[in-house]
Every structure is written in structure tokens, then in C-alpha cells.
Amino acid sequence: MLLVKTYLKESGIPGAGIGCYSDEFIPEGTIIWEFNPLIDRAYLKSQVDTFTQSEKEFINTYAYMHNSIYYLCVDNGRFFNHSDNPNTVELPNTNSQKTLALRDIQPDEEIVSDYRFFGLTQEDLAHNYKSY
User: Fold this and answer.
1) DSSP-assigned letters across all residues of 47-91
2) Chain-centre distance of CA 125, in angstroms?
3) Residue 93's pLDDT is what?
4) How many domains does the chain have?
5) Against a cut of 0.85, is the pTM above it?
6) Would you say 111 and 78 are in contact if contact means Cβ atoms under 8 Å apart?
7) Tens digits of residue pLDDT in 99-123
């Protein structure tokens, strides 16, 4: 669940669609998103395999994988786009699901992550970073 104020608008990244933008100043090191099992959803691969085709497409579009588990942010966090120059970072090589501000993020700045560093396994990488 996002722990900072955000809003959605068209991304400044060509072809990315909707982006998530900061609605406040976020200092470097601030935890901006943390998995909250009361709000966000986590699915085992075996569960996703039983979904309808349209449900699978939704999961494949909006969920990311970490340690072979699909995580679905139900708030604006699912609209973080990929960037090779991100302003956020996921806690690496852990099972803790937290995203931190890599540097100060200004109001009205798009919040972006480097999808190549989501997850722990090759399967995670293949799902999260689909040849952007």
C-alpha cells in the first residue's frame, strides 16, 4: 500500500500509458510503498493458473512477481512504470516488500522503478521485465 500521496496521469515515458505521480515532496530513503496483506493481494502461481484468461491478463499486466509469488498493488502503486534511471528502489534480496525513495522525489514527479531489480528469481525477472 502506498504510504505517500500520489495521483495518476499520462506517463511522460513514451508508450507507457498511465503513470503514478507524487502529490508531495518525498525525501530520499522514505518508504513509499509496503505490502499490506489487508489491502494488497498475493497469489501463488497455482492460484493464477486456475484464473480465467481475462483474470490472468489482468495479473500479467498489473502484478509483479517476487520469489515466484504474484503481488498485486490495489492502489496507484500498480502504475509505477519502468525506468533505467529510477527514483525508487525495492529492498534487494529479501522477502520484505518495500519500496524506498532512491533520491528526493519532487511533487508532480513520476514515480518509477527499475523492473530488472524486482524479485529474486529468473522467473520473477521474466515476468516483471518483459523486454522494455
Assistant:
1) HHTTS-HHHHHHHHHHEEEETTEEEE--SGGGGPEE-SS-SEEEP
2) 13
3) 58
4) 1
5) yes
6) no
7) 999 999 999 999 999 888 777 778 8
The CATH number given to whatever domain includes residue 24 is 2.170.270.10
Question: Which amino acid is it at 49?
Answer: D
Assigned domain for 1 exists? no
- Strand, helix or coil for residue 103: coil
Residues whose CB is less than 8 angstroms from the CB of residue 132 and which lie 6 or more positions away in sequence, other chains included? 82, 115
Does residue 6 sit in helix, strand or coil? strand
Asked, for residue 95, whether it belongs to a domain, the answer is yes
Structural domain containing residue 95: 6-128
Is residue 48 situated within a structural domain?
yes
Whether 97 is covered by a domain: the verdict is: yes
* Sequence-separated (6 or more) residues with CB below 8 Å from residue 113: 80, 81, 82, 83, 86, 88, 89, 90, 99
* pLDDT for 132: 46
Positions of the chain with pLDDT under 50: 132
